[in-house]
């Protein structure tokens, strides 16, 4: 979808201020309210805006550990892979899952209350998921950038 300047401005503002009212958004991007509302609706219907949400502070919620877990599956058995993905989807502490190229099949972002809790998640759950042969865990020491806005194409 080709975006014009006003649409890019709307997206730029909404990425940082998702709760902004249409009145405030229109003023900030230099449009009147009705055209601004129509453009936002069109961006939603076109799938460019896929949803709205709140960023939660994981540490304030008691999740002190963030681990990135590289997963290698036994073999590319389609049934086991579907079962693995269903188990990933069902595990609340896995907050992201990416299929990877290279020597590992998946990268999981896992949050845990403590190292002991992470150890339980890894050894008693993730390692027992369908088809998992091996996992390798790396731990975040410091969040440098999170929830970054997507770069928008130039006009």
From TrEMBL:
<protein>
    <submittedName>
        <fullName>Lrp/AsnC family transcriptional regulator</fullName>
    </submittedName>
</protein>
<dbReference type="InterPro" id="IPR019885">
    <property type="entry name" value="Tscrpt_reg_HTH_AsnC-type_CS"/>
</dbReference>
<feature type="domain" description="HTH asnC-type">
    <location>
        <begin position="3"/>
        <end position="64"/>
    </location>
</feature>
<dbReference type="GO" id="GO:0043200">
    <property type="term" value="P:response to amino acid"/>
</dbReference>
<keyword id="KW-0804">Transcription</keyword>
<keyword id="KW-0238">DNA-binding</keyword>
<dbReference type="GO" id="GO:0005829">
    <property type="term" value="C:cytosol"/>
</dbReference>
<dbReference type="Pfam" id="PF13412">
    <property type="entry name" value="HTH_24"/>
</dbReference>
<dbReference type="InterPro" id="IPR011991">
    <property type="entry name" value="ArsR-like_HTH"/>
</dbReference>
<dbReference type="InterPro" id="IPR019887">
    <property type="entry name" value="Tscrpt_reg_AsnC/Lrp_C"/>
</dbReference>
<dbReference type="InterPro" id="IPR036390">
    <property type="entry name" value="WH_DNA-bd_sf"/>
</dbReference>
<dbReference type="GO" id="GO:0006355">
    <property type="term" value="P:regulation of DNA-templated transcription"/>
</dbReference>
<dbReference type="InterPro" id="IPR019888">
    <property type="entry name" value="Tscrpt_reg_AsnC-like"/>
</dbReference>
<keyword id="KW-0805">Transcription regulation</keyword>
<dbReference type="GO" id="GO:0043565">
    <property type="term" value="F:sequence-specific DNA binding"/>
</dbReference>
<dbReference type="Pfam" id="PF01037">
    <property type="entry name" value="AsnC_trans_reg"/>
</dbReference>
<dbReference type="InterPro" id="IPR011008">
    <property type="entry name" value="Dimeric_a/b-barrel"/>
</dbReference>
<dbReference type="InterPro" id="IPR036388">
    <property type="entry name" value="WH-like_DNA-bd_sf"/>
</dbReference>
<dbReference type="InterPro" id="IPR000485">
    <property type="entry name" value="AsnC-type_HTH_dom"/>
</dbReference>
């Amino acid at each position: 979808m080709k975006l014009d300047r006003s649409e890019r401005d709307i997206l730029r503002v909404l990425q940082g201020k998702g709760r902004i009212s249409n009145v405030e958004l229109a003023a900030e991007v230099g449009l009147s309210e009705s055209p601004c509302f129509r453009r936002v609706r069109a961006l939603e219907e076109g799938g460019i805006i896929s949803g709205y949400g709140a960023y939660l502070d994981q540490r304030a919620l008691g999740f002190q550990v963030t681990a990135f877990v590289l997963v290698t599956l036994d073999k590319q058995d389609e049934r086991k892979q579907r079962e693995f993905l269903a188990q990933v989807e069902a595990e609340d502490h896995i907050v992201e899952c990416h299929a990877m190229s290279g020597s590992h099949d998946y990268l999981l972002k896992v949050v845990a209350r403590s190292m002991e809790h992470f150890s339980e998640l890894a050894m008693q759950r993730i390692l027992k998921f369908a088809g998992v042969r091996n996992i390798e865990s790396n731990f975040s020491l410091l969040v440098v950038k999170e929830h970054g806005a997507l770069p928008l194409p130039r006009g």
